[in-house]
Amino acid sequence: MTIAVSPQALPALVLNADYRPLSYYPLSLWSWQDAIKAVFLDRVNIIAEYDHSVSSPTFSMRLPSVVCLKTFVRPARNPAFTRFNVFLRDKFECQYCGSEDDLTFDHVIPRAHGGQTTWENVVAACAPCNLRKGSKLPKEAGMLPRQKPYQPTVQDLHNNGRLFPPNHLHESWLDYLYWDTELQP
C-alpha cells in the first residue's frame, strides 16, 4: 500500500548491533525518513517492515519498522545528569511522599547549606514537599528521602524505563522489547 506518510507516523525501532534497543526510555526510535536514509547509507539492516510503502517515479520501498545497526555502539557508562534522568532514577515519584504529581527536584542538602547539584544530593520531589522542606536540612524538616540518592548506571535507567512503556508499541517491535506487553491496548 502506498500512502502519504507524515514524519511522525510509522517510526522505526532502532536496535544496536546486539539486537537490543539503543535506549528504552526514551525508546530509541527514528522517523521513517531517517531509517530509509540509514538503509541507503548501508548503516543498518532492516529487520521488519510496515505494510506501508513510499514511492518515487522510479522506486518503491516498504517502510522499515525495526532496524539494526551494523556497527555496535558502546553505551555510555555514566548517564547524563538531567532533570528527566533524576525523575527516571526515582521512578517518577516524590522521594518524600510518593506522589507522582507536579514533580520538581530537591537538593537533599540545600544549596544554602553548601549542597551541590549532583546525583548524590538531588531527588525527585513534588512541589508541595519541596516547598515544605524549603532550605532546611532533612532532619530539621523531618523529611528523609525514601531512598538515598545515588548515581545510577545506564542499566539502572534502562531497567526503570521498562516500567514506563510508551502508549503504543508496534507488534513488530515486541520481540525486541522487554515490557509487560499485556498492558498495551
TrEMBL record:
Source superkingdom: Bacteria
All copies of domain HNH nuclease, residue ranges: 81-131
Listed name of the protein: HNH endonuclease
Keywords on record: Endonuclease, Hydrolase, Nuclease
Coiled-coil residue windows: none
Record bears the keyword Nuclease: yes
Gene Ontology molecular function, alphabetical: endonuclease activity; nucleic acid binding; zinc ion binding
Top-level taxonomy: Bacteria, Pseudomonadati, Pseudomonadota, Alphaproteobacteria, Hyphomicrobiales
Record SMART domains: HNHc
Keyword check for Plastid: no
InterPro entries xrefs: HNH_5, HNH_nuc, NA-targeting_endonuclease
Organism: Ectorhizobium quercum
